[in-house]
Design a protein that fits this description.
- Helix 5 crosses helix 12, helix 6 crosses helix 15 and helix 14 crosses helix 15.
- Strands 3-4-5-6 form a 4-stranded mixed sheet.
- By secondary structure, it is of the alpha+beta class.
- About 40% of the residues lie in helices and about 10% in strands.
- It is elongated, with a radius of gyration of 28 Å.
- The chain is built from 15 helices and 6 strands.
- The protein has 3 domains: about 70 residues, no CATH class; about 200 residues, Orthogonal Bundle (Lysozyme); about 60 residues, no CATH class.
Length: about 350
């Protein structure tokens, strides 16, 4: 607490005014040879002093918080304020028909976000900027905590989407179960190679990836949460972290089973983790938390990479190059590719300007 709580005369007490500022008249000081200007300064200072009106003893030393030390200390807590959050996740980022509206989204997720930032050691301005910038893309500015699919056509090359699939957009909290739990909800998008309406590759199939093995796993363990946690193995790690399942309830590294490699679920000897309610990741109290968990436990190298970045937006060519390289590395670690790399960098830079 050194320099934080001080024992000193109050600046609002005029009793020791002359003694406090007398050195300003000394050789080499501001008012050397300028007594008239010094007297005007003292008169000006007296206008702000009110200690004689408080009834407190004059000339006494008092304990107080040093204002600058107070501000510097509490800036370290990394607690994001409502207005700061609004500047980063601004209304203009959303469509006019956004439901829930932006204000409600920010109100819902600000506390879980602040708790996760503290819990996972992301409170430095640089780490927070990357966390918020990446999360803006992954969660569509908090508006989608579950990965949506597209309607279109399926062929040997993969699934060619044309429009967003409304069924996949309905919050599972409203649906009452995870999307795909009912046979009528089976969605080929998740178990296929995915292409957008322009023919561009979005991502590969989730089938038999990240520990997925049952026919419905690709859909059951679709991306959810602030960092779009994806795959049965990643869900299992988070479930253990939260104490929702025991590590002894399944076989470690079940994806190394020879039958798994041959995509033969029935012949597998190793037992996969059982996750009964994967949609819980998308709940407000879990979705940001799971993002922090993924960043610090599943991809521990990411924070070290971020720490090489600077807290303010880059200006010089050299700084811009380094900033872009770091953002690209963070993007790849989180997304497994370079999707929306330009947007992620832009949103991270935006967060930096607000958090400084």
């Amino acid at each position: 607490m050194r320099g934080f709580i001080c024992l000193a005369p109050s600046e609002w007490d005029s009793t020791n005014l002359e003694r406090r500022y007398a050195k300003l008249l000394q050789t080499g000081e501001h008012f050397e040879g300028k007594k008239d200007n010094y007297d005007k300064f003292i008169a000006f200072v007296r206008q702000f002093q009110f200690w004689d009106k408080t009834g407190l003893p004059k000339g006494e030393k008092v304990w107080f918080f040093h204002p600058l030390a107070f501000i510097r200390h509490f800036r370290k807590c990394g607690w994001l304020f409502t207005e700061e959050f609004k500047q980063i996740y601004a209304d203009v980022r959303y469509s006019k028909h956004q439901r829930p509206p932006p204000q409600q989204l920010r109100s819902t997720y600000l506390l879980p976000l602040n708790l996760a930032i503290r819990k996972f050691g992301l409170s430095s301005p640089t780490r927070m900027a990357h966390f918020l910038g990446q999360g803006a893309v992954e969660s569509a500015w908090l508006s989608s905590m579950q990965e949506t699919s597209m309607a279109g056509r399926l062929d040997d090359a993969g699934f060619h989407g044309s429009v967003k699939n409304p069924a996949s957009m309905l919050p599972e909290t409203e649906l009452g179960h995870w999307y795909g739990e009912l046979p009528v909800e089976a969605d080929a998008w998740y178990r296929s190679k995915k292409f957008n309406s322009h023919g561009g590759l979005i991502s590969g199939s989730y089938d038999w990836k990240n520990g997925n093995c049952d026919p419905i796993d690709a859909q059951k363990f679709r991306g959810r949460g602030f960092k779009q946690l994806t795959g049965r193995s990643n869900y299992a790690d988070y479930w253990i972290f939260r104490g929702w399942i025991l590590s002894s309830s399944f076989s470690p590294n079940w994806w190394t089973d020879p039958a798994y490699r041959n995509h033969n679920r029935q012949a597998m000897i190793k037992i996969p983790a059982e996750i009964r309610s994967p949609q819980d990741v998308a709940l407000p109290e879990n979705c940001i938390d799971s993002g922090g968990f993924y960043l610090r436990f599943q991809r521990p190298e990411v924070a070290r990479c971020i720490d090489h970045d600077q807290p303010m937006p880059a200006n010089s060519i050299t700084e811009l190059t380094k900033e872009k390289e770091i953002s690209a590395a963070v993007t790849y670690a989180i997304n497994g590719g370079h999707m929306d790399e330009t947007s992620r960098l832009a949103f991270t830079r935006l967060a930096k300007t607000v958090l400084l």
